[in-house]
Design a protein that fits this description.
The chain has 265 residues and is mainly alpha-helical. It is built from twelve helices and no strands.
Length: 265
């Protein structure tokens, strides 16, 4: 049961995420198209890097007989912001719920408890303005999602999910306030940002293809039983594992830049 998680995690980390790390210099640009492309790629990089490590650790601990939470549960299979956070970095969510949400909810109600959770999460990532803005953005998104759910506004929830993920990652990635303000101005400079991607190694472009494909499968296949379970079952079938193993053997020689993204902060 646990070994397939190691294979999938290794594939996420080494074949999908590592080559995408070579695109990180794109984040230095501030024109609209470059910001959009770099933000989307950075979101994919963070996901497959961190999920890859988490799945590998989950599998290793399971083989040793130690049960730990599955830290990622296909977050892009979500229909709204709340579902997204229930599938992203679950171990941290459990800690924040215990230390901040539950005590605050007891005395101050739901709204302030949600604010306390995201602000504490922001400060856990870093004590800088961009992380505080990130926490405020996701607090507002979370509260709006509760409102939309109450009035059955599912399409608004999907739109809010896309916007909050994109803006959240853009803010998360830039700690220089002046540069962040330039990016948030969304100024179009008539630059061909797509041309920059062509200059990257072929393995990076292949990894970008796999990243987009896997996230698309998560999102558009969430109503399919094997994907809707949100435990990467669709990647742990014999056929999927065979394909993953073959692709890994073919591409592992040029694996880009391998490091743990959260360890860099």
């Amino acid at each position: 049961y646990y070994f397939p998680f190691i294979l999938v995690g290794f594939f996420f980390l080494n074949v999908v995420a590592a080559p995408l790390a070579l695109t990180l210099p794109l984040a230095e640009s501030t024109d609209l198209l470059s910001v959009a492309i770099s933000t989307v790629i950075f979101e994919l990089f963070v996901y497959f890097n961190f999920a890859g490590i988490s799945l590998t650790v989950y599998g290793l601990f399971g083989i040793l007989g130690i049960k730990i939470p599955l830290n990622f549960r296909q977050p892009f299979s979500s229909r709204n912001v709340i579902e997204f956070w229930r599938g992203w970095h679950i171990s941290l969510s459990l800690v924040l719920r215990t230390l901040f949400y539950n005590p605050t909810r007891r005395f101050y109600g739901r709204t302030l408890s949600i604010f306390a959770v995201f602000m504490s999460s922001a400060l856990w990532h870093g004590a800088t303005l961009n992380f505080l803005l990130w926490g405020a953005l996701h607090t507002i998104s979370f509260l709006l999602t509760l409102f939309f759910i109450r009035y059955h506004m599912k399409y608004l929830n999907l739109f809010l999910l896309a916007v909050s993920i994109f803006l959240g990652r853009l803010i998360f990635a830039e700690s220089d306030t002046q540069v962040l303000l330039q990016k948030l101005s969304f100024t179009y400079k008539n630059q061909n940002a797509f041309a920059v991607l062509v200059d990257f190694p072929a393995t990076t472009l292949v990894s970008l293809f796999f990243a987009i494909l896997l996230v698309s499968l998560e999102f558009f296949g969430k109503d399919i039983k094997i994907i809707g379970k949100r435990n990467y079952k669709f990647l742990r079938t014999p056929i999927s594992l065979l394909l993953i193993s073959v692709i890994t053997l073919l591409l592992i020689k040029e694996n880009g830049l391998l490091y743990a993204v959260y360890a860099q902060r």
